[in-house]
């Protein structure tokens, strides 16, 4: 299901197969793609269950990461390449340009990394260390390390949770300051409030998510959600 809405978010109405739509400078934000593949939805339901073990939660996030990697790369441009099969020369196709960058937002974004790297083994990795201040819900940066040539690469920013979007907005801002301009955001769950804020701040960046939940509670948690993704993934609390 693909949703493309005016900035800021007003309605969620357009449907189609998962694929990205760029901001075309027409006052519309880039698309929000809900990856409603049955495997993704099944695994997400298992993850939401509060009885799921730390080990199970981590494994499922990893598996969904792999499936989301497949969807978020669906429209990458290809270029012709001449190769020799054992029988003859032929023109194949390969992904154009430099290797992708995967940019997990620490900690929970790391949960997507192994699954994505299993499909994109030569991707570069940028780490964006942010935590959400529990009182203000503002994002606080504590670490940043990225390849120097972000301007030449497609960057997939990874974080399971898009709640207030403070973390995502700050991460994208930081990556843009370092030259990135071809960005995609991948999450597991998004709140409508977070999507609106994200699109107001970064209307050029499309979003892929497995679900859009109902709302945020008074503590900025996604409802019904799955709780604190980092704590559930690492067994902290
Ligand atoms: C969580 C989550 C996101 C952020 C989302 O991280 O992984 O990064 O909250 O919330 P927001 O959209 O309101 O910013 P948290 O700050 O709990 O850190 P952690 O991943 O280290 O647990
Ligand atoms: N961060 C989480 O881990 N979960 C939420 O519901 C919101 C922010």
Radius of gyration from CA coordinates: 18 Å
Strand fraction equals: 25-35%
Unreliable parts: 7-24
Tally of separate domains: 1
Oligomer: single chain
**Number of beta strands:** 16
Basic shape: globular
| Bound ions, cofactors and other small molecules, one mention each | 1-O-pyrophosphono-5-O-phosphono-alpha-D-ribofuranose, uracil
Question: Would you mind describing this structure in some detail?
Answer:
The chain is α/β, with parallel strands linked by helices and 237 residues long. It has a single domain (32-76, 95-234), classed as Rossmann fold (3-Layer(aba) Sandwich). Helix content is 27%, strand content 27%. Strands 1, 2, 5, 6, 7, 8, 9, 11 and 13 form a 9-stranded mixed β-sheet that branches. Strands 10-12-14 form a 3-stranded parallel β-sheet. The chain is globular, with a radius of gyration of 18 Å. Bound molecules: 1-O-pyrophosphono-5-O-phosphono-alpha-D-ribofuranose and uracil. Uracil (URA) is lined by residues 161, 163, 220-222, 225, 228-230. It catalyses: UMP + diphosphate = 5-phospho-alpha-D-ribose 1-diphosphate + uracil. Uracil binds at residues 222, 227-229. One of its GO terms (molecular function) is magnesium ion binding. Residues 34-236 form the Phosphoribosyltransferase domain.
What's a quick, concise take on this entry?
Keywords: Allosteric enzyme, Glycosyltransferase, GTP-binding, Magnesium, Nucleotide-binding, Transferase. With 237 residues, the chain is an alpha/beta fold. The protein has helices spanning 38-48, 54-72, 113-119, 166-177, 192-201, 229-234; strands at residues 2-3, 32-34, 78-84, 89-95, 101-106, 124-125, 127-132, 139-145, 154-158, 161-162, 182-186, 189-190, 207-209, 211-212, 215-216, 222-223.
């Amino acid at each position: 299901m693909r949703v493309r809405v005016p900035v800021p978010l007003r309605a969620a109405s357009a449907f189609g197969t998962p694929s990205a739509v760029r901001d075309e400078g027409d006052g519309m934000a880039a698309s929000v793609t809900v990856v409603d593949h049955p495997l993704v939805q099944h695994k997400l339901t298992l993850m939401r269950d509060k009885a799921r073990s730390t080990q199970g939660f981590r494994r499922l996030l990893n598996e969904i990461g792999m499936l989301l990697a497949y969807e978020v790369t669906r429209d990458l441009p290809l270029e012709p390449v001449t190769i020799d099969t054992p029988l003859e020369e032929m023109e194949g196709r390969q992904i154009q340009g430099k290797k992708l960058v995967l940019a997990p937002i620490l900690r929970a974004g790391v949960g997507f990394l192994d699954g994505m790297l299993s499909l994109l083994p030569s991707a570069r990795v940028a780490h964006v260390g942010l935590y959400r201040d529990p009182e203000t819900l503002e994002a606080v940066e504590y670490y940043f390390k990225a390849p120097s040539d972000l301007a030449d690469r497609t960057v997939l920013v990874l974080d399971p949770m898009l709640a207030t979007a403070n973390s995502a907005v700050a991460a994208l801002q930081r990556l843009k300051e370092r030259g990135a301009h071809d960005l995609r955001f991948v999450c597991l769950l998004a709140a409508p409030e977070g999507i609106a804020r994200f699109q107001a701040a970064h209307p050029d960046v499309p979003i892929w998510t497995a679900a859009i939940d109902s709302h945020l509670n008074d503590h900025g948690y996604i409802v019904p959600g799955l709780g604190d993704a980092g704590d559930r993934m690492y067994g902290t609390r």
